[in-house]
Amino acid sequence: MRRVFNGVTRVRVPVLEPRGSGPWPARDRRLTHSCSALVYRQHGAHSDVVRMENLPLPAVGRHCVRLKMLAAPVNPADINMLQGTYPILPPFPAIGGNEGVGEVVEVGSGVTALSLRDWVIPVDAGFGTWRTEAVCDAGDLIAVPKDLSLLGAATIGVNPCTAYRMLHDFAHLRPGDTVIQNGANSAVGQAVIQIAAAMGVKTVSVIRDRPNRWDLVEELKSMGADYVVTEEGLASSEMETIFKDVPKPKLGLNCVGGQSGGLLLSHLDNGATLVTYGAMAKKALPLPAKFLIFKNITLRGFWMTQWKRNNRDDLTRLRSMVNTLSGLVRSGQLSTSQCVQVPFSLYRQALVATACSHQRKHILLM
């Protein structure tokens, strides 16, 4: 159930009872297990509101499963949810974490889609992955192949899926076409580079200048990036040289906004599309009318959570996408972003790092 308050969607994600299970008979309410969980009961800075708590778990209902969480990343969106600034907010008390992988350790008698020892990931945001165990409706999960690495399985459901959808849903890209993106060193940006390379699509990847810029350039090129330029380079003759070798981009991907996003617009081909999926600069996107009038640029937005909700009644597309991405991982065409592994008990270390800029992704290991 979702309710909207002042433009913010609040989703019902019970801490103790599975979603969609309805009122349980008294005999099913007995508590047989407990878990450790990172719980918050108000919004604010993570250091003030997040506490490790021991929570009871209900017995597994007919259409439910119990899973042991194995690993869960700490993403910027998770920090935003703690702060109360994200578009969806679970009711209190809430368990942090939207992404992660768990192993099924108990299956209800009416469950057919999942089996014991399956690895699973949540379908929707707000699941509460920062805990050692969970009981939930089987329909809230999909299985992922167990031949993925643990970190790969824990992080496949958001950033690689975001990159995949943007490359497939907004332009008909063929081998030899070009995509331009900013924020190229982000987890989504790295996935865009690798998935585009597997498609035969050229990438122009924009990064912010930094002391170790050339190390980052080499790292992105080793993933398959064709051209890596700084935001300053976007406004230089360097771009003219690039577009002598490859066609102007049919698709632009913007997660920064501000001047960086505006410069992406200036390099798009006639009839191209600019997709905005983030606003790291926290500045408005400049929009000269000439790009709309004379170049017929289309502006779109994308949010992976909304895509999943739009496809919630039929998970076929989500399963197909995850299977395709898993195949790219197996073939070596898609690698997991370099991550920092943190024991669950040291969760504060991961929260502090994620709240800072330019940090590697931190993953809690349960």
Chain-averaged pLDDT: 90
What shape does the CA trace take?
A: globular
Would you count the extended β strands for me?
19
Helix content: 25-40%
CATH architecture name of the largest domain: Alpha-Beta Complex
Give the percentage of residues in beta strands: 25-35%
Number of helices: 12
Helix/strand structural class: alpha/beta
Q: For the terminal residues, how far apart are their CA atoms?
A: 29 Å
Subcellular location: Mitochondrion
GO molecular function: enoyl-[acyl-carrier-protein] reductase (NADPH) activity
Organism: Synaphobranchus kaupii (Kaup's arrowtooth eel)
Family: Belongs to the zinc-containing alcohol dehydrogenase family. Quinone oxidoreductase subfamily.
Task: Describe the protein in words.
The chain is of the alpha/beta class and 366 residues long. It folds into two domains: 2-155 and 336-365, Medium-chain alcohol dehydrogenases, catalytic domain (Quinone Oxidoreductase, Chain A, domain 1), CATH 3.90.180.10; 159-304, Rossmann fold, CATH 3.40.50.720. The protein contains twelve helices and 19 strands. The chain has helices spanning 46-49, 76-83, 150-154, 159-169, 187-199, 213-222, 238-245, 258-266, 289-293, 304-310, 316-330, 347-355; strands at residues 2-5, 8-11, 31-40, 50-58, 64-74, 88-89, 94-95, 101-107, 119-122, 133-137, 141-144, 178-181, 202-207, 227-230, 251-254, 273-276, 298-301, 339-343, 361-365. Strands 5, 8, 9, 10, 11, 18 and 19 form a seven-stranded mixed β-sheet that branches. Strands 14-13-12-15-16-17 form a six-stranded parallel β-sheet, sandwiched between helices. Helix 6 links the parallel strand 13 (202-207) and strand 14. Helix 4 (159-169) packs across helix 5. The longest helix has 15 residues, at 316-330. The chain is globular. Residues 1-29 have low confidence and may be disordered.
